[in-house]
Design a protein that fits this description.
The chain is of the alpha+beta class. It has 24 helices and 27 strands. Among the domains are: 89 residues, Calcium-transporting ATPase, cytoplasmic transduction domain A (Distorted Sandwich); 121 residues, Calcium-transporting ATPase, cytoplasmic domain N, CATH 3.40.1110.10.
Length: 758
């Protein structure tokens, strides 16, 4: 199945939050397909740095970056690994081999533990930066208040140098590595600016700028991690141990990674489910919000599916494990979003390309300011050089480059919290362009299973006795229509004698001494029981797309039962939401036109197309593209797979626990709620708006301070506050997408009794 994944681009330059590079670990045995943890790989620009460092190395077949987990997978020949590791270290990063981590669960939990490791690194960094800030303040105090003299000057310079070393050692490592490769990034710009300021005698300001820069980067790191950890935090919802039934019938707490398939697990009220499974004993209400986004707990009984990370709110349950710890629906969701973070949204690719040009251009501008302003503005060479250094600090593209990934990750996380799994930033952003959505009928607009919607007695038959006869006979059949009638006629049952099935027609049997037929139109017609009134009644139901079954005795029809695939309670509102957004809904179904038109009328869809084979659905998608523009397709991810691939964006319904849906579409609606399609479009439009707000903020602030740097009196203090202030503004703005990400769907409707007409 083509999931339309775009190639990643690797341009851009920015600084990384908390870019500490720990000492390289001891070499470990390496084989093809190794994965590495790179704790300081925090943004797309640093991914690009690593890509560029690895480009010259022969033998590397592919690279797999997961920024959310801070991991890199390298598929290469054995002899290429030492060269690759050395190149990564020279770029200022410390790759740590990850050995024997081959499941989704272990990889994701490992990524989750990386968060704690990163938090620990940040905790140690806070103490170091506090010392650096203290030294910088002391250097400033020495400059302003200490007596004149060489000794005090040397003391001030020493304090400033120590502050720069404490706060900026890692910046210098990466900056020098970039300059040696002829590359310009934020670390190179800061290294040049701080060194230049120190050399021209502005050492207190250089120390303060480096300390403030490092502190702001630390704050930014925490903000960015908040977006990335919004998904990883879901993993903590699944317990690490399960109460498993042993062979002797006893119950034992067992690590989830050791629980085999088909094992029986017991869950008490209030506990979270550790694994996916099927209920074998007990009933209760389960809160499935972490997986499907549903706000209302779902009643569960034997035979129902349950998911890891959900909460058993009432009743003790026992379930049979159907998925190993590394393959639970929750783990696969997290893994899919981790992978989605690696795909670039269109705006993100634009920003990366722009930053690759912007940074060198500003560096050239700074040189021009240093060389030309003494002649053009009558500045001293020292003043001109200072302005150029201020310009370098202001020009750092961190705010610009960080503005897009944090927004995209926040959008992906906001969708996942509502049961909308989007497989990449490109789909998150492009969903706003949809002009039409093709909707499969069965299982998408409708429930996907027959239901008794109306029944009536005939020829003066008594209601209660007729209901008993029909319920008794239908309950003996395993045909879906008969089962729907039996379920709709819930009540007492009588013994059925001489029961027999008539293939293609119905069933017969004797109930309370009466010989009965429960059959279709054809069966009753063959017995000569279809008079004009019966035919008229049958025609009315068939025009509405219903399946009609009749109960007959000897020479008369006793009752007529109408069964239909009913539309979901949420479908009408979902169609209305799409229309409000300017998206045209079109129904595509393989059912006959009468059924298609009937269901479409109930849902509020004007354009319904029936009798479509899968190939015809492909043609319909192409025609819709030509007529409307960008077109989405919504289906169950199995029969509709070709159309899902053909559409600009494929929406698979019911992804929870459905492997084919997880693979087939670009967007997966985990809880079968069609309203989530409109929510995806709204989220896409909101994300796109925030992206361009961030770009405007970043570039606007830069433009103002660039002018001040050249023609005004901007200082390095102002420059660092402008740069980091812009970074924190865009990060905070991007995180707004996480607000209101909880489910707000209406409560599940109550079940309605079928219409009993007379």
């Amino acid at each position: 199945m083509d999931t339309k994944t775009l190639p990643q681009e690797e341009t851009g330059s920015c600084g990384s939050p908390a870019c500490a590079a720990p000492a390289a670990p001891q070499a470990a045995p390496l084989t093809a397909g190794q994965r590495f943890r790179i704790a300081t790989m925090d943004c797309s620009a640093e991914e690009a740095e690593i890509r560029r460092a690895l480009e010259p190395i022969a033998g590397i077949r592919s690279l797999n970056f997961q920024l959310g987990a801070r991991t890199l997978g390298i598929d290469a020949a054995d002899e290429a690994f030492p060269l690759a590791l050395e190149a990564i270290r020279k770029a200022g990063f410390a790759p740590e081999p990850i050995i024997s981590k081959d499941t989704v669960e272990s990889q994701t939990r490992e990524g989750h533990s990386d968060v704690h490791d990163h938090d620990h690194d940040i905790g140690r960094g806070v103490a170091r930066l506090a010392m650096a800030l203290g030294m910088a303040v002391a250097a400033e105090a020495t400059e302003f208040f200490a007596p004149e003299g060489l000794v005090w000057k040397l003391i001030g310079m020493a304090l400033a140098a120590v502050a720069i070393w404490l706060a900026g050692l890692d910046v210098y490592k990466k900056g020098v590595a970039a300059l040696l490769r002829g590359k310009l990034n934020i670390n190179a710009l800061m290294s040049v600016a701080v060194t230049g300021a120190f050399v021209i005698g502005q050492w207190p300001e250089a120390a303060m700028v480096m300390a403030l820069y490092a502190i702001a980067e630390l704050i930014e790191a925490r903000a960015v991690d908040r977006a990335r950890n919004a998904i990883k935090g879901l993993l903590a919802l699944a317990p690490e141990e399960a109460l498993v039934q042993a062979a002797d019938g006893s119950w034992k707490l067992t690590p989830v990674v050791d629980v085999p398939l088909e094992a029986i697990v017991r869950i008490k009220p209030g506990e979270r489910l550790p694994l996916d499974g099927v209920i074998t004993k007990g009933t209760g209400a389960v809160n499935q919000a972490p997986v499907t986004g549903e706000s209302i707990p779902v009643d569960k009984a034997p035979g129902d599916q349950v998911f890891a990370g959900t909460i058993n709110e009432t009743g003790e349950l026992e379930f049979r494990v159907t998925a190993a710890a590394g393959n639970t629906t929750l783990a696969r969701i997290i893994h899919a979003v981790e992978q989605a973070q690696g795909t670039r949204a269109p705006t993100q690719r634009f920003v990366d390309r722009f930053a690759a040009i912007y940074t060198p251009a500003v560096f050239v501008l700074a040189i021009a300011v240093a060389v030309l302003t003494p002649f053009l503005l009558e500045l001293t060479w020292l003043e001109a050089l200072y302005k150029a250094l201020v310009l370098l600090v202001i020009a750092c593209p961190c705010a610009l480059v960080i503005s897009t990934p944090v927004t995209v990750v926040s959008g992906l996380a906001a969708g996942a919290r509502r049961g909308i799994l989007i497989k990449g930033g490109v789909y998150l952003e492009s969903a706003r362009n949809l002009k039409a959505v093709a909707l499969d009928k069965t299982g998408t607009i409708t429930e996907g299973k027959p239901k008794l919607v109306e029944w009536r007695t005939w020829a003066g038959a008594e209601d209660a006795s007729t209901k008993l006869l029909a319920a008794s006979l239908s309950s003996r059949s395993d045909h879906p229509v008969s089962q729907a009638i039996a379920a709709g006629l819930d009540g007492e049952r009588a013994e059925v004698e001489d029961f027999a099935a008539l293939p293609g027609r119905g069933v017969t049997g004797v109930v309370n001494g009466k010989s009965l037929l429960l059959g279709n139109h054809r069966a009753v017609h063959e017995r000569g029981l279809c008079g004009p009134e019966v035919e008229a009644e049958l025609s009315k139901h068939e025009q509405e797309g219903r399946t009609v079954t009749l109960l007959a005795q000897d020479d008369q029809v006793l009752a007529i039962f109408a069964v239909a695939d009913t539309i979901k309670e949420t479908s009408r509102q979902a169609i209305a939401d799409l229309k409000t957004l300017g998206v045209v809904p079109v129904m595509l179904t393989g059912d006959n036109m009468a059924t298609a038109k009937a269901i479409a009328a109930q849902a509020g869809i004007e354009d319904a197309r029936g009798d479509l084979l899968p190939e015809a659905k492909l043609e319909a998608i192409t025609a819709m593209r030509q007529r409307y523009g960008a077109t989405g397709m919504t289906g169950d991810g199995i029969n509709d797979a070709p159309a899902l691939a053909q559409a600009d964006i494929g929406f698979a319904m019911g992804g929870a626990g459905t492997d084919i849906a997880m693979e087939a579409a670009d967007v997966i609606i985990m809880n079968d709620n069609l309203q989530r399609v409109a929510e995806t479009v709204r989220l896409s439009r909101r994300t796109h708006g925030v992206l361009w707000q961030n770009i405007s903020l970043a570039l606007g602030i830069k433009a103002v301070f660039l002018v001040l740097a050249v023609f005004g009196s901007a200082t390095m203090w102002m420059a660092v506050f402008a740069d980091m202030g812009a970074s924190l503004l865009v990060v905070g703005n991007g995180l707004r997408l996480l607000r209101g990400a909880k489910d707000s769907s209406p409560a599940a409707p109550s079940r309605k009794e079928p219409v009993h007409a007379h």
